[in-house]
C-alpha cells in the first residue's frame, strides 16, 4: 500500500516546515533553487526540440518531453522547494493535523515567491549567454509560449489540474520504489507524460515565460499573457495537488491512520501507568 510513502510525505513536509521556521530567507533560497533546476530542464528540452522543430519533425515534442525529465531529477536529488509539489505535501500534513492551515498558506506563498525569483534570475543568466539569441534556436520555445499565452482560461485551468495531479504522482510514486535507477525512471516517465500531453505547470511556465520575455519576441508574448496563463494555471495546480492528491490520499487512508494513532496513544498511556 501507499501508507509508507504517505509517512515519508509527512516527514518531508515537517522538514520543510523546520527550514521555514528557522529562516524565511533560506526557505526562499531553496524555492529559487527549485525553479532554476526547472530552468535547466526547460533549456535542454527546447534546445533539443529546436533541432527537430526546424525540420518540422513529429519527434519535436517527444524529444523535448523526454529531456525535460532532467528537471525533476535535479529537484529530487539536488534539493529545493517547488510550489506545485508543496500543494500536496502541506495539504496532506495539515489534514493530519501536523501543520496549521494558516502556516500552509504562508508556506505556499513563500515557495511561490522563491520560485518566481529563481525563474527571473535564471532567465537573466540565459540572456547573458546568448544561447537562445538566434531565431533558429528560439523559434520552438517562442511558438510554445505564444500558444500558452493565448489559450482559453478554462482550458488552462483544467489542464493545470491534470498536470499537477500527474507531477505530484511523479514525486510520490518513487517514494515506494527501491533503488535510484527505478526512482529516476519513474520520475522521468511521469514528467514525459505531463509534457507530451500538453498539460500546464505553473512553475515550468513561469521559467519558460521569463526566458521568452528576455529574448527578442513577438508582440503576442507579453506580461499580460503571463498573467492570463499563470492565474488559472496556478489555481488549477493547487486543486490538482491539494485536492486530488492531498485530500484524496488522506481520505482513502484515514481509517488506517486513525487506528494507528489510536494504538500509539493506547501504548503511550499504558507505558505511563
UniProtKB/TrEMBL annotation:
InterPro entries from the UniProt entry: Aquaporin-like, For/NO2_transpt, For/NO2_transpt_CS
Gene3D superfamilies, per database record: Glycerol uptake facilitator protein
This protein's GO CC annotations: plasma membrane
Coiled coil: none
Annotated compartments: Membrane
Protein name stated in the entry: Nitrite transporter NirC
One Pfam family cited in the UniProt record for this chain: Form_Nir_trans
Similarity comment: family membership: Belongs to the FNT transporter (TC 1.A.16) family.
Signal peptide: none
NCBIfam families xref list: fnt
GO molecular function: formate transmembrane transporter activity
Presence of keyword GTP-binding: no
Lipid bilayer topology: Multi-pass membrane protein
TM ranges: 27-46, 66-95, 107-127, 156-177, 189-215, 235-252
Alphabetic keyword roster: Membrane, Transmembrane, Transmembrane helix
Amino acid at each position: 500500500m501507499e501508507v509508507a510513502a504517505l509517512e515519508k510525505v509527512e516527514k518531508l513536509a515537517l522538514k520543510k516546515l523546520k527550514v521555514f521556521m528557522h529562516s524565511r530567507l533560506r526557505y526562499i533560497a531553496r524555492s529559487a533553487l527549485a525553479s532554476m533546476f526547472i530552468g535547466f530542464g526547460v533549456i535542454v528540452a527546447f534546445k533539443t526540440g529546436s533541432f527537430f522543430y526546424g525540420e518540422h519533425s513529429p519527434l519535436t515534442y517527444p524529444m523535448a518531453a523526454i529531456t525535460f525529465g532532467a528537471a525533476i531529477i535535479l529537484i529530487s536529488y539536488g534539493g529545493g522547494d517547488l510550489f506545485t509539489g508543496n500543494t500536496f505535501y502541506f495539504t496532506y500534513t495539515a489534514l493530519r493535523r501536523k501543520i496549521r492551515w494558516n502556516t500552509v498558506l504562508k508556506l505556499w506563498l513563500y515557495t511561490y515567491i522563491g520560485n518566481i525569483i529563481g525563474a527571473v534570475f535564471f532567465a537573466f543568466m540565459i540572456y547573458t549567454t546568448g544561447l537562445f539569441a538566434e531565431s533558429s534556436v528560439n523559434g520552438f520555445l517562442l511558438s510554445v509560449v505564444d500558444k500558452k499565452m493565448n489559450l482559453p482560461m478554462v482550458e488552462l485551468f483544467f489542464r493545470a489540474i491534470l498536470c499537477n495531479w500527474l507531477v505530484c504522482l511523479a514525486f510520490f510514486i518513487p517514494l515506494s520504489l527501491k533503488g535510484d535507477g527505478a526512482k529516476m525512471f519513474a520520475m522521468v516517465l511521469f514528467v514525459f507524460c505531463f509534457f507530451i500531453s500538453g498539460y500546464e505547470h505553473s512553475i515550468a511556465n513561469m521559467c519558460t515565460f521569463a526566458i521568452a520575455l528576455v529574448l527578442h519576441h513577438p508582440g503576442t508574448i507579453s506580461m499580460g499573457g503571463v498573467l492570463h496563463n499563470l492565474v488559472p494555471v496556478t489555481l488549477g495546480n493547487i486543486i490538482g495537488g491539494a485536492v486530488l492528491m492531498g485530500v484524496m490520499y488522506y481520505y482513502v487512508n484515514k481509517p488506517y491512520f486513525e487506528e494507528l494513532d489510536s494504538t500509539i496513544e493506547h501504548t503511550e498511556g499504558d507505558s505511563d501507568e
